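Memo subject: From amino acid sequence to discrete backbone structure tokens
Keywords: amino acid chain, backbone geometry, structure tokens, three-dimensional fold.
Body of memo: The sequence and its backbone structure tokens, given next.
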Amino acid sequence: MISVDGLKVEFGATPLFEEVSYVINKKDRIALVGKNGAGKSTMLKVLAGLQPPTAGVVSLPRDCTIGYLPQVMALTDGRTVMEEAELAFEHIFELQERIERLNRELSERTDYYSDAYRDLIDTFTHAQERFLLMGGTNYRAEIERTLQGLGFERGDFNRPTGEFSGGWRMRIELAKLLLRHPDVLLLDEPTNHLDIESIQWLEQFLATRANAVVLVSHDRAFLNNVTTRTIEISCRHIYDYKVKYDAFVKLRQERREQQLRAYENQRKQIEETEAFIERFRYKATKAVQVQSRIKQLAKLERIEVDEVDNSALRLKFVCCSPSGSYPLVCDGVGKAFDGHTVFSDVTFTIARGEKVAFVGRNGEGKSTLVKCITGEIADYTGHLTLGHNVRIGYFAQNQAQLLDERYTVFETIDRVATGDIRLKIRDILGAFMFGGEASDKPVKVLSGGERTRLALVKLLLEPVNFLVLDEPTNHLDMRSKDVLKEAIRGFEGTVIVVSHDRDFLDGLVSKVYEFGGGRVKEHLGGIYDFLSKHNAALAGERIDACFKPVMYKKETAVAKEAAAAKAVGDGLETAATGASATVAKPEATGAKGHVERKERSKRFKKMEQRVAACEARIEATESAISGLESRMATPEGAADTALYEEYRQLKARLEEAMEAWESASTELEENRIPQDA
């Protein structure tokens, strides 16, 4: 679909990458990875046609459409959310206007038998068929599904876009991009402004409905669930792996070990050659050989080794003296803004040493409760109590704005570091991408992402016993996130993490607090335990909503079945009454009575068999559901949408089996007395 041949991009005289060639095929799901500054975003811009390469060619078919979502983009006001999303269907509106013009022309003309009129009818018919194929009659429903999948409520559709934050407006732009269904989607950090539910919806959309996808992301779980191919930009070249990200990491390690061996062999060869040249440089008898060796060195292509991955660097948050047994107790806490209740009656207790996660859709009050805990908000209702000797280390989403711009990166950290850790400041900064000369940059020239990382390093070295981290991973690459995760895991104090990064939370927290609908629910277990239960509950709600008419029909059928069973029971009772009434009459005790009793016995046995079959079906279905829930509780299972579909089917099958058992049992009980008589 897109062919890249000999691509080269330079900034100044320094090449970002060169001699890059690869092909993007239809239905490819490509993760573009590499360290910060390797050229990932630049590569997307070149593919989108927004930046010309220094050399090389990007070839694509004439009718190929490309959709590009940058990390930052210009946003416009003046429309509602729905009107902005409808811009994705401008081509449909243009076709609709054309159809209306053709229709008016057909109604005005009277030359019904002319060739021109027949041609006009053919044109109108073709345009109408194309309009239907493009979804011209149901585009609004598709807009609503996409907006709701990305977290918008129906009540938001008619609100002006200017009322929303930058993150929500980026969601609108993402919705417009997805609704256009381009041949190639280029996404640069699409999950930065999404909550977990929206990320899962986007994963499903990209995996099932999108065409080719090339994306840049630091969300490991998102990459593993969406992509099937990984292209790494490293040392000005690319390495193409036909595997998911986790498999790529293993293959990359093997490749790096091979590079190291080749590098060592080449270095040894170069040293031997240079030693020969130096030894015989001034001997006339060796002049030819020396010149030959010099030419060999000049032509030799030097092997480069990827930058050493120091994510294994062990860092620890500095924990001061322990706090009391219960650092945080919330009792009926509530908060409202301008009459709007954010949350109410929040009651929970966090014990010393616990690591918990706050999750939920954006706007449900996670950051608000965090600010109540840290003291930034004081006008809440209820009681919020901090335990004895609690010292809070708080990382806010706007933490980067609080750094002192008078100092350099190194000086900022040197001012808070104490003891032996001061000897490792350069290593710590390197782990968070401030290696080399970057550590001497003034804070005032740092970008927003760089400031965020620096604020996180600063917090890492402050002595606290209660960490409150609000979206700490937003601007970190995977290497830095691994360093931070290990540091939090080894922290001896209490931790609250507000995050939508499932891979970061996995294995880190032991309890999840879900924010939604003005309430906060406590869930024991890790993030994937919570997600498996949460997604199963959502699946059940969708089944109830989608299959309500079907359930009504099924209930009607069961009612009819019960009525029929009752009629059979009434008939059996009448027959039994008639039989007992004629027992006193000798003429009724014959072959006919024996046949009736035999038929009743057969029917009764069939009823018993039906009940037993229903019970066996219920037991088998419950066993299958139990096994499926165990699979859904794993990280792989929680991301497998096929399991949720199977779960829905099993739950519906169990409900149907229970209703059939209830009907059969009722029928059996109603006919048990006549049988015993």
In short: Residues 591-632 form the longest helix (42 residues). The radius of gyration is 35 Å. Confidence is low (pLDDT under 50) at residues 545-589, 673-677. The chain is about 50% helix and 15% strand.
